[in-house]
Amino acid sequence: MLQKWLRDKLQGYIIDIANRVLPQRMHELEVQHCLYAKKVIVKILRKNILGLCYPGYKTIILSPRIILLPQRYWDTIILHEMAHLKFPHHRKAFWSFLTILLGEDFKLQKDRMDTMMGIFYNYSEFLLK
Ligand SMILES: [Zn+2]
């Protein structure tokens, strides 16, 4: 009972904060890269999904779980979704463009994130079912 209460409280709190900080951070990145979405939505997505992009609608959906990650990974996820505004696939052109946005080879960032994600998913799954 106590754990459920605590989890509900934490969940509400995390979602509130995510709604404030993620669209704001994305807007900063939009200005920085002159790449704009029409809409950004913060919403819990199914396990392992931290972001989605609907290029046809220029809409990006970000999971509130992102804010549980170390802050340096926020941009990696947000920029990945923003790159889909231009390239709605995962072909070579997409990864080249993402590397430009990141200012670093996407593979280096991906390796760093993969190492951490196993642990992260377990505890973020506990907090944000
Ligand atoms: Zn993608």
Describe this structure in words.
The chain has helices at 2-33, 72-86, 92-102, 106-127, and strands at residues 39-42, 51-54, 59-62. With 129 residues, it is mostly helical. The protein has one domain (2-127): Zincin-like (2-Layer Sandwich). Strands 1-3-2 form a three-stranded mixed sheet, covered by helices on one side. Helix 1 (2-33) crosses helix 2 (72-86). The chain is globular and about 50 Å long. The model has no long low-confidence stretch (mean pLDDT 91). Zinc ion (ZN) binds at residues 80, 84, 90.
Please render the helix and strand layout as text.
Elements: H1 2-33, E1 39-42, E2 51-54, E3 59-62, H2 72-86, H3 92-102, H4 106-127
Parallel strand pairs: 1-3
Antiparallel strand pairs: 2-3
Bound molecules: zinc ion.
The site of zinc ion has 3 residues, from helix 2.
- Which regions have little confidence, pLDDT < 50, spanning 5+ residues? none
CATH architecture: 2-Layer Sandwich
Order of helices and strands: HEEEHHH
Bound molecules: zinc ion
User: What's the number of helices?
Assistant: 4
Radius of gyration: 15 Å
Strand coverage percent: 5-15%
Strand order in the largest sheet: 1-3-2
CATH topology: Zincin-like
Can you identify the CATH superfamily?
Metalloproteases ("zincins"), catalytic domain
Largest sheet: 3 strands, mixed
Q: What would the average pLDDT be, to the nearest integer?
A: 91
Distance between the termini: 16 Å
- Mind telling me the CATH class? Alpha Beta
Count of domain modules: 1
| Overall 3D form | globular
What percent of residues adopt helix (DSSP H or I)? 55-70%
Q: How does the helix and strand content classify structurally? A: mainly alpha
Using DSSP, what is the number of strands?
3
